[in-house]
């Protein structure tokens, strides 16, 4: 179930219908992908929609575009539209070996399509965070022959040499959900995942408060954190990005400890040997063995838990 985003959705459609490109801006988990998915039928009702998952790597993005054009039966010069997409992809790859040539062929195809007098195609990219300065000229060219709809994080807009692109696009920001919307989403997810809480009211208002209105966070809390932990106000963790940062910190702190422990074991072994103390020698050996076995395992536990 999808909640809210009426205004933002309308703004995106308005831009596209006016023949403009648009960038949907929000941090991870704010629901950019979910909104684009929700808008898909309306976009398709307006014109051809070419969908790509992400901008980077650029070669994969161009391939996605080719597939989209192929599905829409928009021909690329020198490449037929046979029954076999893979075969046509190979033909295209051979005829236009470099990414620049590939991009050019796609821009040309979209231009010819737009000149037919139909609505311009919409090129939707679900994740434009991988944008690089080197892609910008091609994206600007695409924006001239199609309506770009990109989703990006606020930081993406600050990337070097990308300003020329954002300048050309309308911008729609996704704020957190309102408390009312958050609550509606939390309730729907509680139903979906069959969460049982002793006190449903307390549970729901805690989820809404903890999530800060971020839909991805509401989903994480309902799905992966026990109702008991949420109600008892225990450590319920943080969002994905923060969690990752914390794990990295712990990993760094653990590294010197591991190193020192390994060094101590080696020193003990030598000392044991030099003094003829068999116990120390054996203990050092065991220490080294433990270090060898545990170090990679510990690192994994810290990084990947
Ligand atoms: N308006 C909404 N109504 C219901 N569920 C939503 C809504 N927005 C987002 N969600 C859910 O929240 C989760 C995160 O949303 P989504 O993946 O769209 O975020 P995103 O902004 O695309 O994040 P990222 O930048 O990481 O790609 C998804 O499971 C999605 O289904
Ligand atoms: Mg997304």
Automatic annotation (TrEMBL):
The keyword Transcription does not apply. InterPro entries: AAA_16 (IPR041664), ExeA_AAA_ATPase_DNA-bind (IPR052026), P-loop_NTPase (IPR027417). The chain crosses the membrane at residues 252-272, 278-298. Pfam families: AAA_16. Keywords: Membrane, Plasmid, Transmembrane, Transmembrane helix. Residues 2-130 form the Orc1-like AAA ATPase domain. It comes from the Bacteria. This is Orc1-like AAA ATPase domain-containing protein. It comes from Thermus brockianus.
């Amino acid at each position: 179930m999808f909640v809210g985003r009426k205004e933002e959705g309308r703004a995106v459609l308005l831009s596209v219908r006016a023949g403009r490109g648009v960038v949907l801006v929000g941090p991870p988990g704010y629901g950019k992908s979910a909104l684009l998915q929700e808008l898909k039928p309306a976009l398709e009702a307006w014109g051809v929609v070419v969908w790509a998952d992400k901008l980077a790597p650029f070669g994969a993005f161009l391939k996605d575009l080719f597939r989209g054009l192929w599905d829409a039966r928009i021909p690329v010069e020198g490449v037929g539209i046979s029954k076999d997409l893979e075969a046509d992809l190979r033909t295209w790859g051979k005829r236009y070996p470099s990414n620049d040539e590939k991009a050019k062929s796609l821009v040309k195809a979209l231009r010819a399509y737009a000149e037919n007098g139909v609505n311009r195609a919409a090129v939707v990219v679900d994740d434009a965070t991988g944008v690089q300065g080197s892609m910008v000229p091609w994206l600007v060219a695409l924006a001239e022959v199609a309506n770009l709809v990109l989703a990006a994080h606020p930081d993406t807009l600050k990337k070097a040499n990308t300003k020329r692109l954002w300048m050309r696009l309308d911008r729609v920001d996704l704020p957190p959900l309102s408390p009312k919307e958050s609550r509606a989403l939390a309730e729907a997810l509680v139903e979906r995942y069959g969460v049982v809480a002793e006190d449903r009211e307390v549970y729901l208002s805690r989820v809404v408060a903890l999530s800060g209105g971020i839909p991805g966070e509401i989903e994480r809390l309902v799905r992966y954190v026990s109702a008991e932990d949420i109600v008892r106000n225990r450590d319920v963790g943080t969002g994905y990005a923060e969690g990752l940062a914390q794990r990295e910190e712990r990993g760094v702190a653990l590294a010197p400890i591991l190193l020192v422990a390994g060094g101590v074991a080696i020193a003990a072994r030598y000392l044991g040997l030099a003094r003829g103390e068999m116990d120390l020698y054996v203990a050092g050996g065991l220490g080294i063995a433990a270090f060898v076995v545990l170090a990679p395992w510990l690192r994994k536990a810290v990084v990947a838990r």
